[in-house]
Amino acid sequence: MSLQMVLRHETGGFTGKFQVRRTAWLAQGGDFRHGEPGKAGAAGFQKCFFCSKVGRGGFRLLLARMGDNELLLRRGIHMLQKCRAGNALFNPAHITQVCANAVNHSRPSFSSAFGQAVCELAAEDGRICAVTAAMRDGTGLGSFEAQFPERFFDVGIAEGHAVAMAAGMAKQGSLPIFAVYSSFLQRGYDMLLHDVAILGLHVVFGVDRAGLVGEDGETHHGLFDVAYLSSVPGMTLFAPASFAEVRSMLRHAVRKVSGPVALRYPRGGESGYRGDAGVEPTVCLKVGKAITLVTYGITTGSVLEAGAMLEAAGYVPEIIKLNRLMPLDDEEILASVKKTERVLIAEECAAMGGMGQQIAAHMAAQGVVPKAMALCNTGSGFITHGTTAELRRLCGLDAESLYQAAVEVLKRE
Question: Where residue 217 falls among pLDDT bands split at 50, 70, 90?
Fold first, then answer.
């Protein structure tokens, strides 16, 4: 059944113009982009999409089988709550609950790992509070609200206010943890500087959806947080690459770090790397001598895979993983580049202000000049809509592309 037919079926027919955004989802090996309306998908979930200008009835919420797209849920709740009384299909409270129930949280994710880790820490320390900006379920804080309702604060779609409020809470002796999407935290940059950083307050930021987010589109890619968080004086920035590292790094951030501290982690599940490299600033995952590969976060899996391909081709790479991005500890990186004389730095963020540029600046300042260098990132523009796998290939951040880039570096004299 076509999308137009689904709309007509659910609304009883309409003549007005409409705009619809939706994403498809795959479950149990099936493609559920089409189907009969009103029925749940194979995994038992109903998904949401929103239609504006449907006849004369205002905004209409339509339940259909769709992908986990918090952007649509967020916008749909907002639109429906603004409808004139009598025009909305459901009251705002019911709409919010329907949308929350529609999100598929069945698979482990970095968000759920973060939420579980926050709950574990909150059970040990009564000062810990969780803050969200209308993204409780998307950031994995649903369990926290259930277990510690008096320490859970949802400020609504007001990220700047959430940062300022967290600063006030920290000033009064609480230990706030603000879970927020990377692209939404951009709205709180002023408060990061003037309310948190100037006073050196211990506020913990869970920067969710860092990197490429796939189907949510170019407004939701978290590509700029490395640059803007690196510019905040006193900020400590960690980049967990696995669920285990989310837990260990969050505990370290809460217990051992003072001042503002952030963990950046991606949407979805783990890549090929599932270890725990601890909380040391940098770790060497593999000793080699042909080329230095530097990476962090979700890109670690692709770099390890590319490293295995290089070794199969006769080149043994040295692979260095950054656990802590800021403050940058460059000692191990510089020592490795002096040995190999070739370096490739791979990261899922924008080129400008990324770790590649920062490491290159550190090398230049220390007089370490490699024979060849490649900076692999998402470039200087905005990234379009697509699956994360498609977009990583587009940006040259999948294993095959990184392997080819490393081979080019090795060929340079």
Answer: confident
